[in-house]
Amino acid sequence: MITAMSTENLTHQPAITLDKHKITDMILVSTSKLMVSIFEQRKIILLDCGSGQVLSEIALHEKPRCLCLTSTHLAASTLVNNKISFITINESILKAASTINVDVNVHGIATLWNNFVISYDPPGVKVISKDGAVIHKLDNKTAGREVFKNPRRIATTPDDSIYVTDWERHEITRLDSSLTILQTFSGSMLKGPHGINESLNKDQLLVCCRGNNSVVLIRPSTNSMTVLLGKQHGIERPQSVCFCKEQKKLYVAPYGDRVLVYQLS
After folding, report:
1. Which residues pair with 193 in a beta bridge?
2. Which of 19, 39, 120, 184, by CA, is between 20 and 30 Å from 153?
3. How far apart are CA 9 and CA 47, in angstroms?
């Protein structure tokens, strides 16, 4: 049984390439399918993880930013112009469903129970219902100090922790479900943190550090950080990361039109 991820037990596999489609965000929707958002072309694309084949794609009216899976057959994407769009997944077919309006310029999104956690400008984080109603809110005004400068991606873990990357503060903030600050991660390894996701368990988080051209492994229980992959492994300005526990495969989307694939052994 594998209990830790390290550079030594990752083997590079053939990359998935999307011709001239620069990937903004990426999530696993099953053990064999990836969903990616393409900001400039206003597209959401479903990919086969093994072959790299495009299974389905949809065009949106607004540019998509970040993605999250809300159930086996439903995903959500944040859009420019203060919106969140729902996308249904029927086998290998995507279809645009409903859209809700939010009162902020939303970026990151993650699910928390039956709600969403979002990051936004002016800098802050909210827990909202799926119809957009605000449940909890944390920003610099409510905190009475600068908590966020440019919050971007969000990950939630089974212990109901919320992790928020801050691109400009070079920090990751851990919050509870009420948005109380529990822990802060910072240091030279976390330069321009962007995409974040759970690895083997809730105590192993993967973070894309665009400023360092690296993927960093964080262990919240010990407040420790390790560079897992760097520029020598093909990592350049990484945007998004996800890990398939069943297949033990790591997917990293650097800036551009490729998804790098690593097998954990």
Report:
1. 209
2. 19
3. 25
Q: How far apart are CA 108 and CA 95, in angstroms?
A: 21
Asked if residue 50 lies in contact with residue 37, where contact means CB atoms within 8 angstroms, the answer is: no
Give the global pTM. Answer: 0.96
Q: What does the angle CA 117 – CA 84 – CA 74 come to, to the nearest 5 degrees? A: 85
Per CATH, domain 7-264 is 2.120.10.30: yes
Q: What is the SS3 assignment for 142?
A: helix
| Inter-residue contact 261 to 250 (CB < 8 Å) | yes
Question: What 3-state class would DSSP assign to 34?
Answer: strand
Distance, CA of 192 to CA of 206 (rounded, Å): 14
Kindly report, residue by residue over 94-109, the tens digit of the pLDDT: 999 999 999 999 999 9
Supply 34's token pair.
Answer: 């990836």
Structure tokens at 157: 């873990």
Confidence grade of residue 53 (pLDDT, cut at 50, 70, 90): very high
Total count of residues recorded for the chain = 265
DSSP letters along 147-195, please? --SSEEEEEE-TT--EEEEETTTTEEEEE-TT--EEEEEESTT-SSEEE
Separation between Cα atoms, residue 107 and residue 30, nearest integer Å: 23
CB atoms within 10 A of CB 3: 7
Contact 125, 179 (CB under 8 A): yes
- Angstrom distance (rounded) from CA 226 to CA 190: 10
What sign has the CA pseudo-torsion 66, 72, 90, 255? positive
Residues forming a β-bridge with 68? 76
